Each structure stands twice: as C-alpha cells, then as structure tokens.
Amino acid sequence: MKPIQIGILDFSYISHLRSARTASISTPREIKLLKKAVEGMGHIAKIYKVEKCQLYFDNRKPLIFYKNKPIKGCDVLIPRVSVSGDIDLEISIVKQFKMLGVPVVNDYLPTARAKNKLRTLQILTYRGIPVPRTLVVRKLEFLDEGIEKVGGYPVIIKSPFGSYGVGVAIAESRRSLYSALDMVWKTTASSIILIQEYVAEAEGSDFRAYVIGDKVVASMQRRATKGDFRSNLHYGGEAVKVKLTQEEQHLAVRATQALGLDVGGVDLLRTKNGPVVMEVNANPGFEGLMKVTGVNIPDEMVKYAVTIYKKQQENGLKKKKTSPSASA
Q: What pTM does this model have?
C-alpha cells in the first residue's frame, strides 16, 4: 500500500504543567519511538503538540489550526493522552480530530472513561468483570464503616483520577489513615475518595497486560520494592516477563473492550478467588515493558493504526456503493 500519514498527538507539555512527576513519565522518548516505528514501516509521521493546536469553530464546521495555520490533517491519529486533570476539557482535541473524519486509536469517550477510576469501576462491574472490593466516599464520617465493608485494614486509598501510582496511598491502621488521605487529596481537586481492599495474597505483585485490539501483545509481572506497596516501575518496582493464563488474557481484553479502548494497559491482581482487574490505563507507557519483554510495542500500535485506517476506507467505499446516488 502507498504510505499513509499517521498523526501522533503529544500531550507531554500539558502533563509538564500539571506535575513534574507525570512530566517525567509522559516521555517525549516514547513519542520518538512511535515516530521511528511509523517511518520504519514506510509511512509518514506527523507530530502534533497539543499546546500548538487551536480549535476553531464557525457556523459550518470545526477546524484545527496548528501554529495558527489550518492543518492538512492525517489519515489516522494515535493520541498519547498523559493528563490526569480536567480530562474532558484537555482531551476535547481528540474529539475534534474525529469530527474532521480522522479515525483515532483510543477515541475521546473511551479515554475519558478510563481516566475516571469511578466510571471505570461502574462499567467493569456492569459487564460482570471482577474488581477489588471498593467503596467511594465523600465525607470522613463514613470512613470507619466503609473500611470494614472492604475487609478492614490495611486498605488502599485512591484519587478517582491519576495514574502511574500518583494519587494512591496505603493506610495500615486508623492512625495512618489521615496522613494517607492528606497525601491523596494533595493530588486531586475532588472530594471523592476510593477505599479499596488490600489483596494480601498478591504480596505486592501485580500483572500488566498490554492490549491492542483483541489481543494481549505483551505482559509482565511487577513487584513493589521493599517498603513500598506500589509495583509501578516509575517507583522502582521490579518487573519480569510473564505469560498470563488464558483466563487473565481474556479478562484483560474484556476490560479494554468494555471501556471501548483500542489500546489499554490492564493491571491485574491474582486473588484466592481468581484474577481481578485493578485498573485500566488509556495511555499505558510502553518503554519499560519493551525492555522487559522484548516486544516492539510501537510497531504493534502502528500496525493497528493502519488496520483502523483501512477499515474506514473500506467502510467508506461500501457506503458509496450502497448509497442511492451510487445506484442511480
């Protein structure tokens, strides 16, 4: 096939404004790896930095300007949405590309769902996908009974937004509860707190499944370092390549598809009652996973983006053939 233009929407500037911590996570290096993969397959990479984009509206149609000039657009877009605040506002640009007719790998609404941990839990539970026992509270007066409902101390305290282990703390006892709450509240403007059961049998270990389309392309087991409960590699966690069970792979794909994501990082815990989905990330980092597994994830993402583009082209041709004007 002839080369196509694959856009990569880079949000790293926004995450830098929000937090120095997340800025180091949303690496421009991953953008470069994607660009390399696009060009390595003979296609054309177009990098769009969100801070240089302007959304424009008039009474006819929406447009996007890039550095004050109308963009010519791309054939398919891969957004790298590394933001955890003002989600609906910040990712509106993804919707704008879709309104221009550009197919998107991880559209606006699925991304918004996954960025909201509460909404994620609602959808997964509705679809019958197992999750850790979780209670959502707004007022401190309901904490004590709420903690009992999820199995008692220790418990995990989470912000409804945030990823990479940011906005997450552990409370080992009532005495440590308020310092944990204070730590979480500093990362979010919301009064909502998620109280989640601590799965002791997991022993500080979880499993990351990287889902693209309808399959797990890479997976690893992560272990927290001594003195920390978070297994994230950004916090010094250790990781090894692992092959997930068929049940775990199926669960990861189901969770991603339940949210409507094309690409997702699904975090699983192994419990005495079977695997549960702890979290689904709409913008999973892949550099660390590549080092652990040897899987070229940018190549897999680009292949999938090309598939999405082809499907839209085929659907467009089918519509033309079946339209009244085409048959007249």
A: 0.86
H or E segment and range at residue 45: strand 44-49
> Within its chain, how far is the Cα of 237 from the centroid?
19
CB-based contacts of 250: which residues, under 8 Å, 6+ apart? Answer: none
Is the pLDDT confidence value at 301 over 60? yes
Evaluate whether 250 touches 219 at the Cβ level (below 8 Å). Answer: no
- Please tell me whether residue 139 adopts helix, strand or coil conformation: coil
Distances (CA, A) of 170 to 24, 182, 225: 23, 12, 14
Question: What distance in Å separates the CA atoms of residue 158 and residue 267, rounded to the nearest whole number?
Answer: 15
Tokens of 171: 């409370």
Q: In whole angstroms, give the CA distance from residue 90 to residue 111.
A: 11
* Number of alpha helices (DSSP H) and beta strands (DSSP E) in the chain: 13, 15
Section 134-153 average pLDDT: 86
Residues 222 and 231 sit within 8 Å (Cβ to Cβ) = yes
Can you read off the two tokens belonging to residue 181? 């709450």
Residue-level pLDDT at 324 = 53
Matching CATH number, 5-109, of 2.30.22.10, 3.30.1950.10, 3.30.70.141, 3.40.50.20: 3.40.50.20
Q: Which of 114-123, 142-151, 225-234 has the lowest mean pLDDT?
A: 225-234
Residues 201-294, CATH architecture:
2-Layer Sandwich (3.30)
Average pLDDT over residues 163-185: 75
Beta strands in 138-290 (DSSP E): 155-158, 168-171, 193-197, 205-212, 215-223, 238-241, 263-271, 274-281
Residue 280's pLDDT is 96
Q: In angstroms, rounded to a whole number, what is the distance separating the alpha carbons of residues 219 and 82? A: 21
What was the pLDDT predicted at 323? 53
Cα Rg for the chain, rounded, in angstroms? 21
In single-letter form, the type of residue at position 95 comes to: K
